[in-house]
Amino acid sequence: xxxxxxxxxxxxxxxxxxxxxxxxxxxxxxxxxxxxxxxxxxxxxxxxxxxxxxxxxxxxxxxxxxxxxxxxxxxxxxxxxxxxxxxxxxxxxxxxxxxxxxxxxxxxxxxxxxxxxxxxxxxxxxxxxxxxxxxxxxxxxxxxxxxxx
Length: 149
Prior knowledge:
elongated; 0% strand; mainly alpha; Four Helix Bundle (Hemerythrin (Met), subunit A)
């Protein structure tokens, strides 16, 4: 079960990251396509929410690695590779998730289409940047493969 959740979480990150890029570009793009921007924003929210559920299941339930890290949190904080997964990845993705949700709400409550666009651009852009920074890219000390099989 651990491997299945890990594979799903790994592969869905590409959809979430792609939706973040598309939602950000949509907010930065043509002023007339408001409905299209909202669709990408909705897909981004859905992708991030699904990733959250899978990630929390990995963190608290099915990952033997995370169980060992949580059991020795003091030691994990002294090791940059373990700290990334114990704290940095989780925190960064939570911040990105909050930005995505806040961006959608603020955009819906905006009084003008321009204000809605600007709010989406800022929130989705920051969320996408934070997501990109919180992904364990290959080549980093805590890196993981781009595609798991």
